[in-house]
Batch of 4 targets.
Target 1
Amino acid sequence: TITEPAQLIPRKQRYTNKAPKTNKEQKIFDRHCQLWYDKYKDSDNSDIMGPDGCQAFFSDIGVSLESITPLIIAWKMNCSRMGYITKNEWQHGMKALNVENESKLKVALSTAEQCIEKHDKEFEGLYNFCYPYAKSENQKSMDVEVAIALWQVLLVNRYPIVKSFIQFLQEKKPVKVINKDQWRSLLEFGRDIPEDLSGYDPVSYWPVLFDDFVEWKKKQESDV
């Protein structure tokens, strides 16, 4: 039996094997999604779910705001702004996951989390989504405090070196913002460089911030 690589299987098929819906089934599905969304929409703007609505939604499905799951949901919905879900984003995400109620969503999210854990390409898609999603709309770069909070959720348990990198940022405060290149490079750095820095090549084209981190970490270890 030949198993297709995960990255070659359409994402929707990875989370559901349901056959296409009939027109009647689709209308029922859309109606259920709409009624579900209406529980959390803003009272002043029915086309958006604000922070209070999002918090209530996550609470109802038993999801911690400090876990990776809200980021996965935002990714599946292709949300454009942290803390907000538009009606169109909600409908897009529920269709992509093929769910219209809490119990089905929990199953789909569990499957998605397992896929992200096993497949680097899936995780990379989520990780790269988080940069434009979480930074302020009027900023080109991301505040370092926001980046650290996201890395603690996304990377610390996956790549041990990231914990030391965060410590470096917090102690030395070398930057106030993280640019897109630095954000993407940390994922590659975490994959390639072990905690003992044995795979680090100073000739490689890492951002200067990473060179400064390596110098700091080596000094920390030599002082012990």
Target 2
Amino acid sequence: MKPPGLIALLLILAFFAACGAGNDSNNSDSAPSSTGSISLSGNSGSFDIPGGVSSVTLYANGEMNADNLTISVMDGPDDSGYVGTYRVAVDGPYGLAVARTIPDADYTPVTEGRWRYKINCFGCLVPEIKAFWKSGEGVNMKLNVILVSQSDITSADDPNLQETLGRFKSIFASNGINISEITYKWIESDDTVITSTDTNGNFQPDGMDRLFSGNKGNSDFVQLFFVQSAGPGGTLGIAGGIPGPPVAGTAHSGVIAATFGGLSTLSSHDKNLLGETIAHEIGHYLGLYHTSESNGLRFDPVSDTGECRKSNPIPASCPDGANLMFFAAGGPSIPQTTLSPGQRFVLRHAHLVR
């Protein structure tokens, strides 16, 4: 999501230094869903999914030598091709590490039996491929907050930090997802200023690659990085994938959110907007697409979201303008906090929602 103004500074060589940690917990009474995984070998093959499974996630990590890594085939036992089956086509997963979760909409059930897959990597052998599965619908999500060179935030209970995160948590709670635990970590890095430089061609700034791959955190948590700038044009946030990898430490494992010089400098409105952006980008990371794209021709795969068939519209003119996953920020007059039942279905089946 992009607000007006603010151009990013140039990126310098990255370095990391851990400075502290903390923890908040807010456990739900709901029993966690059960999960499983299997390691796969070869860029194509098959894997067996047991009965009672509600979601399947295929994950491939080509590390830093992958050239435009993509998941080109993910077929269920009934030969239903899940990759690319949308109302209107949206981009598939791509980058140095990729993932695809089924269901990715409210009409794609998981079928027991043998599934086929194919990973395209243009001549390279993908060193890590896994299939993850989950039974039941999740309601709890864990969050690891990494503050990157944020000198004005010195503790987890900082009121500006908690106001921003509180907005995010309230949006997810209103849509049925409880943030059950939050951990905090402080690091120093020149990559707190993200530029548009993408030397390895993975459709993501190099600074994000370094921040995400350098973070070997708990893979049961979504990784959220607060940076000073998220890129040119005043970008508020970026997700590492749709969905992102269900493991930490890859070049696409995380979400960034920009503080534009520090959370303490932001107005209450701007902190609310940043909280909405965090919810939006984590929505991407868990598998939600924009309900409509700016050209008015591309839409998400969920059946019950609105479609705005206009070019470069303002949110107020669109049936999905107040949806959390609309492509552009709504501003103070249009809070974007709602999700459709179909979108909530996708979130509950995301691998990191337990």
Target 3
Amino acid sequence: MKTLASQATKQMPIQAIGNFESKGSKFLSFLFPFAQFNESLSSLKEQHPKAVHFVSASRHYNEYGQILESFDDDKEPRGSSGTPSLNVLRGEELVEVGVVIVRYFGGTLLGVGGLVRAYTNAVQNAIESAKMQGLLVDYIHAETFELQIAYSALSVCEYEAKKLGLCFEKEAFLPFGVQVRVQGEKKCLEMFKTMYNNNFVFIANPK
């Protein structure tokens, strides 16, 4: 599985842009991390007030580790736009992403077959743009657990967690220790748990 790199700021959101033209109609495609999807869709509607359709598709994991998929034809003929766009995301094995295709009508009806080709190409072009920019990375499903660590072991735990590439966040300072949240790749979490249980003083078992 692949996804878009997550390093982004409000000033410079991560996105990949593509386009496709057919018989005068322009299809502008925007690929975003799923976390930015709804906000980006609203923003694109404001930026392109003369566009006639905003077709979209997305794939992301829910809390149970299942992939949820969605699409919206936005008044294009059924099966001509949203589903083909989603199929491209599936074919490229992308997760935690959303794509929006902005269509400017060129005056000529394309028919269902023409629309399928146009939307498919537009999404594919955005993905190719992401590849060229080095924005696609392997998707690693992050897991999280919380625990309490005695103050005497805190610095060692934090050092070992960061050495394993884990996110180590202090949530609360309690009378007998610190409540922390540790997040990262499953195998690294298991290594940390083994080290933690064998070598560090702990107050509560991880959740």
Target 4
Amino acid sequence: MSKLGQLKSSANFSAEDASRQRSELLIARKRADELSHDLSKKIAELELLQRRVADLERQLTDERKDFESQLLFQRQEVNRLKEELEESFREFTDLMNTKIALDQEILMYRKMLEGEESRLNLTPAPRDSPFNIPVKRRRVDGDFEGDESNASLTGASYSSSRTRFAYRVSSTARGPVEFFKEQDTHGKWIKIHNSSNDEMNLGGWELVHEADGHETRFKFSRAFSLKPGALCTIWSQDAEGNSHNPPADLTMKNKSFHPGTDVTILLLDADGEEQAKCTVKREKIRPGVNFDRKSGVRAHDEVSVLIGFNFS
């Protein structure tokens, strides 16, 4: 009986040990599953970071190419201006040398003439003035009377006719990014404004400018954004005083806005949906109409003056 008891005790101990080992095996498998799940998450995060790095590298490459092209253009412009300056200096030098030679020649001939006059005891003749030019007398009705060398300008009268025009600027916006209340009417620049308290990402947005049948498109870079309350000016490539200082100032490459009397400007998001619209129209103003700059109307006067001279 004692032998049987020992065997039972040994069997119970072995069963408990096997149960404990199975529990440890389950715990180890669970831990392995957790580690495998964590590894999958880390791999996904690594792939996301790698894609982000690749996007940043592409963006850096695009920005570098843009900077290099602008730098090349600036260098070419500087070289062109240097060549023009050197050519102007050469022309100026040639003209100065010619002037000095002519002055010396005139002085020599004048001394020779004065010597001959002194030798022959001649009275020097009055020098002709370039202002003693015969002119034709004319009546008020436009008929000519003849040539006289002592005709003089006695009076002038003029009449003027004035036509007033104004450029009316109106804009609408679906969101916080809108066109500024003042826009250039000569196609030099366009201003947009972020009226919200949040930074707005305009990556991939597009500006469409249409003026009298001419269309110009400008696309913002993928990383472009406007800070709260900030203004951004998009300049034509040939505009005087333009500057490229993102995000406040952007200069288009090889593009210009066309001036016109009927201008429509659209701001499209990355999906091509209209977010803001601005129209600039030239209107003829009736006489006696007052202008208020706060209303968005800017007046320009076109004055034609007819001047008639009376000779006697």
